[in-house]
């Protein structure tokens, strides 16, 4: 029975406006939530458990504030919740190294994560982690079937490919056709009592350093037209002014 | 002089035009650019030279016939020199970049939109902020399409080198897309419809326009969630695809923050919406306040006239 890990990350609510102060994003007062694609990763992990048995451990690398999303994962159905204690910036290599060490310690043989985190937007962690571990990976996963091997549906040139992936493997999940379940009352009660298994994170040195953050440059004011007939003017501007056609 | 490796963006076995933009990015990073063309046939690298590229390596291997992250990273790692690595920020190449970076013990910086004196800037928080980083030593960098000027084509020496990697996944089948139209993630022009289209059958008007201008058809989440006929693969936005085409035409889409997250970096945005206060107009280069019933036929006719 597989020992399943799902990676969850805490990020600012995607509805929240962003403000910058002193060249850095001001996170104070921002509501923090589980990164949206991680909800699909958790759903995939729970379905894997339902199909094959085993247990699901939700893991995050973060500060004490991230305990909340671990409890959310517990309420939805994770069996164990682990936080690798770390605050502050780490580059892709340092994040993946710390996660890889923890996954080895946990003896996991399959990992689910989001296709990209809502803060970084990177999509680096799944494939990078798989390389650190020497495992297979599939990214942008749209659908899964669980047998001896896992079959993952991913976008490919000209269509969707069905890939047979033998474990151990890392799957980075897109939304696809997964409907995520909501926590039930029993789950919520259990999550309240649950304690987070906090462990030391083995975060190596980062060779990437954040210099500054800024708001995106303001777009020059657009041109607004009224009435459908103006669409002909827009067509002309697309060729003559924007040069895109 | 150290070298900077450019991984050619491949599309249907040929070097995609966006590769020319990667040359400009590589020159900005410094180091002599070396173009690596992942292929099954060395001839794919013929005529793949660009001004500024010192040499072209056709990395020839059967693993490049379909995508397997582990095998691609191993095969490219085996034949590419050390140094910075530059690839396109397409979903496949971002995945490959992350694998290759981890394999070489390098950091990866994704979705770069500007390179300036060794500092790299990428959007974070769904494009609501820009983050600038400095890298100590070599890095793997993916660059967004349509942000760098393309380098001119030029002659180059091509050496064909055998590469190899172990496949970790097996393709069982590829289910072809129902339509021959491009996927939004691959398209340079996108026509997207929202709930304002009224009913899914009306998407045929968007499809007709898309076919005249060689565009893909996208949709808002409200359209995808409301109508079974509109598949999730068309969804643009935070829980759909992130796109940055040259031109994005939003029809009957209000411009919710989660939709903007997926398309705000488009070079030009056209919006058609009957509500003058719709948030999409704040981000549109050209806004048309009208119903799509009024505006779309006019736009389609005018564009068809121009394209013929
Ligand atoms: C966690 C989360 C993730 C999300 N992810 C996404 C995502 O990935 N992508 C996404 O798009 N949304 C996403 N959403 C949903 C988003 O918040 C909006 O609900 C959605 O984008 C609205 O779609 P819409 O603009 O088509 O519909 P509406 O908001 O209903 O807007 C319809 C628009 O059409 C106009 N209209 C009506 N009739 C006409 C007509 N005849 N002619 C012209 N205009 C007309 C109206 O004025 C209106 O502006 C997400 C939401 C959440 C909470
Ligand atoms: N600090 C972290 N803790 C736990 N999971 C993470 C962390 N960073 C990234 N991940 C996982 O990796 C996915 C992709 O992140 P990224 O590579 O940053 O886009 C996220 O959706 C999470 O599932």
3D architecture notes:
The complex is a heterodimer of chains A (245) and B (308). Chain A is an alpha/beta fold. Chain A has a single domain, classed as Rossmann fold. Chain A is built from six helices and 16 strands. Chain A has helices spanning 36-52, 67-76, 92-106, 125-133, 185-193, 231-240, and strands at residues 3-7, 10-12, 20-21, 24-25, 32-34, 55-62, 80-85, 110-114, 136-141, 143-146, 150-156, 159-165, 169-173, 197-200, 208-214, 223-226. Chain A has a seven-stranded parallel sheet, with helices on both faces. Chain A has a three-stranded antiparallel sheet with strand order 10-11-12. In chain A, helix 2 (67-76) links the parallel strand 6 (55-62) and strand 7. The longest helix of chain A has 17 residues, at 36-52. The radius of gyration of chain A is 21 Å and the shape is globular. The termini of chain A are far apart. In chain B, helix 2 packs across helix 3 and helix 4 (203-213) runs parallel beside helix 7 (292-307). Chain B starts with a strand and ends with a helix. In chain B, strand 14 (189-193), helix 4 and strand 15 form a beta-alpha-beta unit. Chain B has two domains: 3-143, Rossmann fold; 166-307, TPP-binding domain (Rossmann fold). By secondary structure, chain B is α/β, with parallel strands linked by helices. A seven-stranded parallel sheet of chain B has the order 7-11-6-1-4-5-12, sandwiched between helices. Chain B has a five-stranded parallel sheet with strand order 15-14-16-17-18. In chain B, strands 8-9-10 form a three-stranded antiparallel sheet. At the A-B interface, helix 3, helix 4, strand 9, strand 11 and strand 12 of A face helix 2, helix 3, strand 7, strand 9 and strand 10 of B. Strand 15 of chain A pairs antiparallel with strand 10 (129-135) of chain B, so a sheet runs across the interface. Bound molecules: flavin-adenine dinucleotide and adenosine monophosphate. Adenosine monophosphate is lined by residues 7-9, 35, 37-38, 41, 60-62, 95, 113-114, 116-117, 120, 122-126 of chain A.
């Amino acid at each position: 029975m597989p020992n399943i890990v799902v990676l969850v990350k805490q990020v600012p609510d995607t509805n929240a406006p962003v403000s910058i102060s002193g060249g850095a994003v001001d996170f104070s007062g921002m509501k923090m939530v589980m990164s949206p694609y991680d909800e699909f990763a958790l759903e995939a992990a729970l379905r894997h458990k339902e199909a094959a048995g085993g247990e699901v451990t939700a893991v995050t690398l973060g500060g004490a504030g991230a305990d909340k999303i671990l409890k959310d994962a517990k309420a939805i159905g994770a069996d164990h919740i682990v936080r690798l204690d770390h605050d502050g910036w780490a580059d892709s290599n340092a994040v993946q190294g710390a996660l890889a060490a923890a996954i080895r310690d946990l003896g996991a043989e399959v990992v689910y994560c989001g296709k990209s985190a809502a803060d970084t937007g990177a999509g680096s962690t799944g494939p990078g982690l798989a390389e650190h571990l020497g495992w297979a990976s599939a990214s942008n996963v749209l659908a899964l079937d669980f047998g001896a091997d896992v079959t993952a549906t991913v976008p490919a040139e000209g269509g969707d490919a069905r890939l047979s992936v033998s474990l151990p493997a890392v799957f980075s999940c897109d939304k696809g056709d997964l409907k995520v379940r909501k926590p039930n009352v029993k789950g919520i009660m259990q999550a309240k009592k649950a304690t987070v298994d906090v462990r030391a994170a083995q975060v190596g040195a980062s060779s990437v350093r954040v210099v500054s953050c800024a708001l995106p440059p303001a777009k020059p004011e657009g041109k607004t037209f009224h009435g459908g007939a103006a669409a002909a003017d827009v067509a002309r501007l697309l060729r003559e002014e924007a040069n895109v056609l | 002089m150290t070298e900077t490796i450019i991984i050619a963006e491949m599309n249907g076995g040929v070097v995609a035009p966006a590769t020319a933009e990667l040359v400009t990015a590589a020159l900005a990073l410094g180091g002599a650019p070396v173009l690596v063309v992942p292929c099954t046939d060395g001839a794919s690298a013929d005529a793949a030279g660009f001004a500024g590229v010192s040499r072209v390596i056709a990395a020839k291997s059967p693993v490049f016939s379909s995508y397997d992250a582990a095998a691609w990273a191993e095969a490219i790692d085996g034949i590419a020199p050390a140094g910075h690595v530059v690839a396109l920020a397409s979903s496949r190449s971002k995945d490959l970049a992350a694998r290759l970076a981890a394999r070489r013990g390098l950091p990866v910086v994704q979705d770069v939109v500007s390179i300036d004196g060794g500092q790299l800037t990428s959007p974070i928080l769904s494009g609501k902020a820009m983050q600038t980083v400095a890298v100590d030593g070599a890095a793997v960098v993916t660059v967004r399409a349509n942000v760098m000027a393309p380098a001119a084509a030029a002659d180059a020496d091509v050496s064909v080198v055998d590469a190899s990697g172990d496949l970790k996944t097996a393709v069982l089948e590829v289910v072809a897309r129902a339509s021959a139209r491009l996927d939004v993630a691959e398209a340079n022009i996108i026509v997207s419809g929202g709930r304002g289209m009224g009913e899914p059958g009306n998407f045929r008007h968007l499809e007709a326009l898309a076919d005249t201008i060689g565009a893909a058809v996208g949709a808002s989440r409200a359209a995808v969630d409301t109508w079974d006929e509109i598949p999730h693969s068309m969804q643009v936005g935070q829980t759909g695809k992130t796109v940055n085409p040259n031109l994005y035409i939003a029809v009957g889409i209000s411009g919710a923050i989660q939709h903007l997250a997926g398309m705000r970096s488009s070079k030009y945005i056209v919006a058609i919406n009957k509500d003058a206060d719709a948030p999409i107009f704040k981000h549109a280069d050209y806004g048309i306040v009208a119903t799509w019933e009024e505006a779309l036929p006019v736009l389609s006719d005018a564009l068809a006239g121009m394209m013929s």
